[in-house]
């Protein structure tokens, strides 16, 4: 078992060619919809990246399901990417895109409450335990590797039973012929949340105007962290404090999911308009938007809530119900 863990902990070494320092150029770098001028704003760029919540493999947490695995090394990378995606959406929702994190600095209580939703405990609403068990309904056994589309479906279910009044849009696709569209979506659409793919690095990414992606890699195994006696979480291992890595976009796996956060319904309407204007105008489309649920698709069945009472959902819930802000009411996103 130790040799298996060691294999995945060291998986990151195959990307050493991307670890060089950032070049001193006039290029713009886009981090989740926000641009930085690399030549003059490198420190802001690095600060922006380190502020993102970074979820990696963990070990020594309570066994999933009571008798299952106590580490997700080797199989939980895509779930960790899904957590990064969802955490970024929650940060945007409750703290705003311009919120910044600094090491050892006291953070808003909303930040701590968001972080606690993702701790590796069965009673935390977005924990590895909840996501793995939710995946059973998608045909995935606990301890089995997930693909981007499965993770997107699990996130959709979790958000549904937490009754968000905001919307996270997840688009799963095969990127074999749409590299340019993916680059355009990262730059043109301002609501980016995250981009996991299913080949290392399974990563939260950002893109610049060249052919490179910046990523946070989950393939590092860290020890389980729990709440401290004062009710807070030591968050030092939930932020990547080293220089972020880069990869050529052509090395991105063909299976990928993009995430976009829409705080209000008008944001979703704007997102649809931008996608139709900038992305879906080509003959070869990576996905489609349609007004109604296709008749040949199976009917949508809301997921059952987990048996375990989770903490954190009361923070996420709104006092108002979802005002019909569902993809099936406005547009249906079809992946191809």
Spell out the key features of this protein.
336 residues, alpha+beta, 10 helices, 12 strands, disordered C terminus, Cysteine protease, protease, transport, lipid metabolism
Oligomer: single chain
Instruction: For the largest sheet, list the strands in their spatial order.
Output: 2-1-6-7-9
Total helical segments: 10
Q: What amount of the residues lies in strands?
A: 15-25%
* Order of secondary-structure elements: HEEHEHHHHEHEEEEEEHEHHE
Shape: globular
Q: Which structural class do the helices and strands define?
A: alpha+beta
Largest β sheet strand count, sense and barrel closure: 5 strands, antiparallel
Terminal residue distance? 38 Å
Q: Which regions are unreliable across 5 or more consecutive residues at pLDDT < 50?
A: 1-20, 191-195, 197-209, 318-336
Number of strands: 12
Q: Could you walk me through the main structural features you see in this protein, from its secondary elements to its overall organization?
A:
With 336 residues, this protein is of the alpha+beta class. The chain has a domain at 1-167 and 214-255. 29% of the residues lie in helices and 16% in strands. It contains 10 helices and 12 strands. It has helices spanning 2-9, 42-50, 77-94, 109-116, 128-134, 148-161, 179-188, 265-279, 313-316, 327-330, and strands at residues 28-31, 34-37, 57-59, 167-174, 192-194, 204-208, 212-216, 221-223, 245-248, 255-262, 287-290, 332-335. The protein has a 5-stranded antiparallel beta sheet with strand order 2-1-6-7-9, sandwiched between helices. The protein has a 3-stranded antiparallel beta sheet with strand order 4-10-5. α3 (77-94) runs antiparallel to α4 (109-116). The radius of gyration is 19 Å and the shape is globular. Its main location: cytoplasm.
């Amino acid at each position: 078992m130790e040799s298996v863990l060691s294999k995945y902990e060291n998986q990151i070494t195959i990307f050493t060619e991307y670890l060089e320092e950032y070049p001193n150029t006039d290029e713009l770098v886009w981090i989740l919809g926000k641009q930085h001028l690399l030549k003059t704003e490198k420190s802001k760029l690095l600060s922006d990246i380190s502020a993102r919540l970074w979820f990696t493999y963990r070990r020594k947490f309570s066994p999933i399901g009571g008798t299952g695995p106590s580490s997700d090394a080797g199989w939980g990378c895509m779930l960790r990417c899904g957590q990064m995606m969802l955490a970024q959406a929650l940060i945007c929702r409750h703290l705003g895109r311009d919120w910044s994190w600094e090491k050892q600095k006291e953070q808003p209580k909303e930040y701590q409450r968001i972080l606690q939703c993702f701790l590796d405990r069965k009673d935390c609403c977005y924990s590895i335990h909840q996501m793995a068990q939710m995946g059973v309904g998608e045909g995935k056994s606990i301890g089995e590797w997930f693909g981007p589309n499965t993770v997107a479906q699990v996130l959709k279910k979790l958000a549904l039973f937490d009754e968000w009044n905001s919307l996270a849009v997840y688009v799963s696709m095969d990127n074999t012929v749409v590299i340019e569209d993916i680059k355009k979506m990262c730059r043109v659409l301002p609501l980016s949340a995250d981009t996991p793919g299913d080949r290392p690095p399974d990563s939260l990414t950002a893109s610049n105007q060249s052919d490179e992606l910046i990523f946070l890699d989950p393939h590092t195994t860290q020890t389980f962290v729990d709440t401290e006696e004062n009710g807070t979480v030591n968050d030092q291992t939930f932020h990547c404090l080293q220089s972020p890595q880069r990869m050529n976009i052509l090395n991105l796996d063909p299976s990928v999911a993009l995430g976009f956060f829409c705080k209000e319904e008008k944001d979703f309407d704007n997102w649809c308009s931008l996608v139709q204007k900038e992305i879906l105008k080509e003959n070869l489309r990576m996905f489609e938007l349609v007004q109604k649920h296709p008749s040949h698709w199976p009917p949508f069945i809301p997921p059952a809530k987990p048996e375990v009472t989770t903490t954190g959902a009361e923070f996420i819930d709104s006092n108002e119900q979802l005002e019909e802000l569902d993809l099936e009411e406005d547009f249906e996103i079809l992946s191809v």
